[in-house]
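Following up on my earlier thread - several people asked me to post the actual chain instead of describing it. Fair enough. Here it is, all 750 residues.
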Amino acid sequence: MTSDAGTRGAIDDAPERTSILPLAGMTCEACARSVEAMLRAVPGVASAEVSFGARQVTVRGASERPSRAALAAALRGSGYSIPDGTDAAPGGDLRAEVAFATAAEGAELARSRRALAIALAFGVPALLLELFAADARIVLAVSLPVLAWAGAELVATGLRAALRGRPDMNTLIALGAVSAWLAGALGAFGPAGLHAAAHHAHAAALIVIFALLGRWLEQRTRRRAGDALAALVELTPQRVRVLRRGAEVELPLSEARVGALALVRPGERIPVDGVVHGGASEIDESALTGESRPRAVEPGARVSAGTLNGSGALEIAIERIGSDTRVALIAQAVQRARGSRVALQRLVDRVSAVFVPFVLVAALATLVGWRTAGGEWDAAIGRAIAVLVVACPCALGLATPAAIVAATSAAARIGALVRGADALERLARVDHVVLDKTGTLTSGAPVLVAVHALDARAQDERELLRIAASVESSSEQPLGRALVAAARERALELAPVSGFRAEPGRGVRATLGGREVWLGSPQAAERRLEAAAARELVRATAAIAARGASPVALLVDGAPRALFELRDAPRPQARAVIEELGALGLSVELCSGDHPGAVAAIAGALGIERARGAATPEDKLELVRARRAEGRRVWMIGDGVNDAPALAAADVGLAIGGGADVALEAADAALLEPDLARLPRLLRLARAMRATIRANLAWAFAYNVLALPLAAGALEPWTQWSPSPGVAAAGMAASSLVVVLNSLRLLRAS
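Reply from S.P.:
Thanks for posting it. Predicted structure:
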């Protein structure tokens, strides 16, 4: 994916210097930031980006791929590790990557569940003992397993981070819990002046319980997105039956070859992308496209891996296998997007980097301040501990990643493949949309309605069509495919051609039987003709365009021979979608390489006021640049080779499913099915993601701004109350949970 400088970057601009490695031991977003800091300190590492959701780190070397051993050594003793196994270099085994992440999430969830159960088993009795005024030494003893057993990993991780000089969320919890228990121990066994502090022992248990509860709930909600991705990856069967020399052979999917015939029985999932060669059935594509109704397929229909075959047996000519299939592209996009970041994340990272040290200073200041003001040690210690545990940098850390995971999962559900969360963020801000015509607003399946000979000496219509179809048989353009289809319907035998060459936005040329044949737009043809011939071509072309049809000119040895009249009906939902986009605040513009008359006819039928025809790829690119120069945020939507430069230059480029590969590669996103009704849904989802991130950040900032002074006892002179360490811990857990639950609402946006 490419774009104007400063707008977006390639997904991986240096694959030979990049390693994507699995990570173990992370429990929250704060862990991810700690790992990044440690790996960036390794000599030769230019950058390190951790995806907590995918349990991966992408490390780029300054001059070469960093050594796995050096990276692993940098994490040694930190509680984090790079497990032995596959180096997930770019293009690695997605199934293995997702399996690792899913297993890691499952193991972490199980550990959290066990730890929470142990914490409750000892923490609840400790609380009851405290409520019934039991001996402080008994409360202290009952609370100890919560700290030393259930919370051991949490405490150890936090203290290690502090010792490395990179305190994080775990550090605040660890210091708060350990301080509470030690205060209880001093109260139970220390001088008489500290006896009142004995009641803090049960607070240590409550701090750990609420921290573990918040972590378990967060992991549980994250697991939902991970399970959805794992289910997507598992859709494709790993074995396929193919036809070889008339016999049915079952073999591993990796051994199948493009061009072979795959056999799919009723009720089986289709293992490959391809074209139905024999048989008829209905296929369920809901897992890929979100469309609940089965689609009827017959010879010539395209089918995708991971879809469910209905009641008929199918023979499928294989076109794409494994990581090249559509379902694999969806899974790759979701996996990549889980670790992507939006622009606001940079601000969050900067704030988080100073937040924990600030809280540590605030806790110390609270302790000193209360003692200086004449407060008892018991009260001063309680306020300081409350400050430590009430703060929640984790809510800040989760604010954007949680929304990104939910939004990209929701986008996949509506059949949109999004390359990164930054694309959704940019989409939320667009205010102008530029649409291609053929294959985007129209069905992309034009039909030949007439052949107009331009030369009295020209061959009959069948021969003119045979010549045109022979040349267009190597083309990917919809109008060219329509000519080939028309020739086959008439049982015309196509002739071999040589020297085929495509001129994007203009036409195609080739040599057939020693003659130079050119087909393309009448506007491009006019520039090849003498004045008189050009005037005649313009007159004939205008008559075709006035009927709302698309003309294609045929030149043989530089002389005009025919005009082919083709019609491509607008998609049924096109007008309603244009109106809906307008209602969402977008201005709409049509830009097509088709004849201006045909473009004007379509624009009028769909209610589009601004339309331009006869546009070359360069014209489309300049149009996008001009609109951006006017201050518009441009959403370009197209499907063909002609659209690729404009797709890459727009703020957001979206390719319509079934489009040319170069268009799909240039775009930020793609609709897997040519269903225009999904465009407004995708726009609403992008806006919802942006609003959710802002709401999450507003909540996280507001919570911390209000909670810290409250925990420090700022209102106590007037209310005679301030939160205990246990209540502060509950607030910390609730803050993270609010962010996660708010983000999960995006899943309903699909």
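The chain is about 50% helix and 15% strand. That should answer part of your original question.
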